[in-house]
Amino acid sequence: MKATLGVVVNPTAGAGRGQDRGSRALDLLARLGYAIVDFSAEDVHRAEASARQGMVDGIDALVVVGGDGMVHLGVNLMAMTNLPLGIVAEGTGNDISRGLGLPIRDVDASVAWIDRALADGGRVIDAVRVTDLTHHGMAEWYVGVLSAGFDAAVNATTNRMRWPSGSARYVRALLTELGRLRPFGYRIEVDGQVHEFPGTLVSVANGVGFGGGMLIAPNAEFDDGLVDVVLADALTRRALLAVFPRVYRGTHLSHPALSVVRGRVVTLETLPGVGAPPPAAYADGEPLGPLPLRCEVVPGALRVLAPPRAAAGRLR
After folding, report:
1. Distance between CA atoms of 126 and 73, rounded to whole angstroms?
2. CA 95 – CA 239 distance, rounded (Å)
3. pTM of the predicted structure, to 2 decimals
4. What CATH architecture is 129-300?
5. Each residue's pLDDT tens digit, 262-291
6. Annotated domain spans of the chain
7. CATH number of 4-121
8. Which residue of 75, 147, 255, 287 shows the fewest CB atoms closer than 10 Å?
């Protein structure tokens, strides 16, 4: 018998295809000789509790089946442990999996990568620990992108929508939020360097993308010990519409209103008296809460069952 794998399936992933794809993944892993412990539950909180208990009882790796939200769950379970995280990407956006060079919506190929990476040891990447500076210092982890501006507002609206599917839902939400566009007041500190400005967007990126293929930080790397902090000054609706299509190609950073600052520790705060308060932040597409927040890169905090960096870069 090979290793014991804990598995969590999101049955609603991929417009309801998650349950079938999850069953397929469980079957394939069992055929390969792995012992399977299914931690899937009616809701994410029960699944998380079951997985935590399973880690105490003894598993060798955790596999999540779903989108970036399930990866986020897995990261918060596995960060700073010796256990690897496997991903079967079956969600709407799958930006983390895409950035890691993993197969998208292909259960057989995903399971093959998990099997191979368990033998090879997988890839060690950074994770970002976010501390809530107002609510008793509670912390959460992410590996993709934290959004704290117009992008976060669009994320929140996207999550409330049921139609259309995929990246088209994000575009529809963006157009909705465009009608409410206004500048936000920011105080952003990156490794001691302070930026105070009225702005449209702030993204703290450990990975390259969000929103189902938007390359918000095209030069970010999962394992360089730094985040790319993308800052956008106050943009008009016309300017934002002009910049938006370029995000899918990663060419938007040449716009004069955008800049990137790289660092390890980032503090995000509201700047009183300037613009509107920024919306609640999201990370990996999941809600985190309002500012102020502190983001700290922890190098090598997570082992993922994914290709090495060179192979992942060729697969993006």
Report:
1. 16
2. 25
3. 0.92
4. Sandwich (2.60)
5. 999 999 999 999 999 999 999 999 999 999
6. 4-121, 129-300
7. 3.40.50.10330
8. 287
